[in-house]
């Protein structure tokens, strides 16, 4: 696949603006990898004024919680089933993602998730693109682009990946797991809104006491997230944790909470550093996030879920 934009420059710029309306989206998540995915899944499902979640995909991951990318994907798939049942949202379809990372720069890791994304994207009106919200290694999305490059004209990718452009490196879990996929998404000209981790989403910290105050008694979802957070650490005295993944949902809900600008899509070095290249196509880059506004919105929506059950 040639790494070139399929949209005219003015079209790409328009796609990189906030939509200013409710959008259709899919959520691609390594849900078992960390506790922040669970927060993001519930935040997306409770943000129906802004997003319509059409499907959710399980993404591969490999760390101490899995035996390999396939096992990580399967565990994430089961976790998605658990959350969907908790939220009583059985109408939202779930799809298994890739069992391995991209084997090469032009070779997809085929999966039912990648094929579903191709189908949904190609059925979309180019003037009403499908938003692909990714909070994991971007294997499934890159694979879909390789399977059918024309989807670049019909999707907008919103990805939590890498670190801030000023950070000494960008060896972040989502980006570093599948370097071929990460490079492809940054190279191919797909409209991309990038939410960096360290330096931006790292502002999204909370504590057990804050969650106890605001969501613990707020229905099944609040209790579930509280217990999930409680179990993630042995000692919560003076302890806070980053809930990274809610950053991408927050941008769709209210872009003023996530100030951003257009910049040339950077390259990624072999040792996981950003390489600026002003000759490249633009992406939208989040450079800050208003932590308090985002958590207020999340807590309010969890409370609303509890009140309407």
Supply database-style keywords.
single chain; 309 residues; alpha/beta; eight-stranded mixed β-sheet; two-stranded antiparallel ribbon; 11 helices; 12 strands; globular
Estimated helix fraction = 25-40%
Order of helices and strands: HEHEHEHEHEHHEEHHEHEEEEH
Low-pLDDT sequence parts: none
Structural class: alpha/beta
Widest beta sheet: strand line-up: 3-2-1-4-5-6-12-9
Give the beta-strand count: 12
What would the average pLDDT be, to the nearest integer?
Answer: 96
Main sheet overview: 8 strands, mixed
Strand content: 15-25%
Tally the helices. Answer: 11
- So what's the overall shape? globular
Oligomeric state of this protein: single chain
Rg computed from alpha carbons, rounded to a whole number of angstroms? 18 Å
Task: Give the termini distance in whole angstroms.
Answer: 48 Å
In short:
With 309 residues, the protein is α/β, with parallel strands linked by helices.
């Amino acid at each position: 696949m040639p790494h070139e934009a399929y949209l005219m420059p003015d079209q790409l710029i328009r796609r990189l603006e906030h939509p200013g309306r409710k959008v259709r989206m899919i959520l691609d998540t390594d849900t078992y990898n960390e506790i922040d995915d669970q927060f993001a899944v519930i935040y997306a499902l409770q943000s129906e004024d802004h997003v319509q979640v059409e499907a959710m995909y399980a993404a591969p991951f490999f760390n101490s919680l899995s035996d390999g990318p396939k096992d990580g994907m399967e565990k994430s798939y089961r976790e998605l089933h658990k959350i969907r049942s908790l939220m009583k949202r059985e109408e939202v379809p779930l799809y298994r993602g890739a069992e391995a990372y991209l084997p090469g720069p032009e070779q997809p890791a085929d999966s039912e998730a990648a094929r579903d994304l191709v189908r949904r994207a190609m059925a979309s009106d180019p003037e009403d693109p499908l938003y692909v919200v990714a909070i994991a290694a971007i294997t499934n999305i890159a694979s879909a682009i390789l399977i059918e490059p024309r989807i670049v004209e019909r999707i907008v990718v919103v990805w939590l990946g890498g670190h801030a452009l000023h950070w000494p490196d960008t060896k972040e879990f989502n980006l570093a797991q599948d370097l071929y996929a990460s490079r492809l998404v940054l190279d191919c000209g797909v409209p991309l809104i990038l939410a960096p981790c360290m330096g931006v989403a790292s502002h999204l910290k909370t504590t057990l006491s804050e969650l106890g105050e605001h969501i613990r008694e707020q229905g099944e979802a609040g209790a579930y997230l509280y217990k999930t957070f409680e179990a993630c650490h042995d000692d919560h005295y003076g302890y806070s944790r980053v809930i990274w993944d809610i950053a991408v949902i927050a941008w769709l809900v209210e872009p003023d909470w996530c100030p951003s600008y257009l910049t040339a899509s950077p390259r990624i070095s072999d040792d996981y550093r950003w390489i600026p290249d002003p000759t490249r196509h633009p992406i939208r880059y989040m450079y800050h996030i208003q932590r308090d506004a985002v958590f207020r919105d999340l807590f309010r929506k969890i409370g609303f879920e509890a009140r309407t059950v």
